[in-house]
Write a structure and sequence with these properties.
8-stranded antiparallel sheet, alpha+beta, about 350 residues, 4-stranded mixed sheet
Length: about 350
Amino acid sequence: MSHSLTASLVIMQRSGLRSLRSSTPMFTSHFSSTATSSAGLDADNLGLDGDTVAEFKSRGWCAVPDFWEAHEIDALRNALSLLQVRGRLANVATDGDGETHTEVARNLQLCPLSPELPIFRSLPFVEKVGRSVAQLLCNDADDVVDESVYCYLSQTFWKPAQHGLGTGYHQDNAYFEVPDARRGCAMWTAIHDATVANGCLHVADGYAMEGAQSADNNHGILDHRRDLTSDHHITCVDVIDLEREVAIEMKAGGVVFFNYNVPHRTGPNETDTPRAGVAYHFLHGAHYRERAFPLPEDCDYRTPVVHGRGNTQGAAEYGENVASWQGDVADMLAVDLEAERVMYKSEKSNN
């Protein structure tokens, strides 16, 4: 990615692009609690099953329904709703000039997410998360001496009801600029049921493994330009073959893993309820690099080791053990969102 593009990204508490509608047939993958698919969890090792790992390594992405248990996704939904109630999510949609924000909020984003609440800080230390990303990124997920995985970034996207704006096609590696995109992956969690109608995740199949190691091919990074429906995003929509598009409909609690070169987008939300997703990005320790993307100067950006050598459950990075997932889940399940709405409204009126 050019330095001019990098400089244009006042990332990532901001983002968005109007979703494309293709006149070509679109293949839709449906995943639900009753669906049968090659992707799934392995109860014996708290990670992914062999078919899922093989699919990711050959295709660049895989979908895992019911990754989170019902009470876990309820807690994550409450936590994200709490941030939305408190006004922590920023509208990043613009009127087509890349600068002027829409009068009505259409695409809400917050990044980094981990510092906002303990549950978002402890999430990457959940055993099944660390195990799963190690299986996808490491040569040997059981080698905790010579291989490690970092949590590289965290963020959330909230699409308001009726007028939610999608995020346009892009590759994460156009931001991250990691030499081998196959050694990094995103973990995208459906906070609400995700359907085509409310703007579920779409991927463009077949691009992820093309030229991933070739410097002559810019390591598989496609041409991107500024996305003028966002205040900072870039998009590779101009070079995407929409016949390769796969829409991934998923029940809340499902997860999609995809490597840094998988082109992906979300669609508009025209339903009567909001839809949100939470994305964490991970990177193999041998391929770690200092971030190439800008963030607000005062943000709390940390990249804790979540698997393998150097994993101290956050103590090294935060000064204390932050692997408090079960307690954090319980805390968020006890949140009274209606009381929080009343409190925030009162505080805002007083100010």
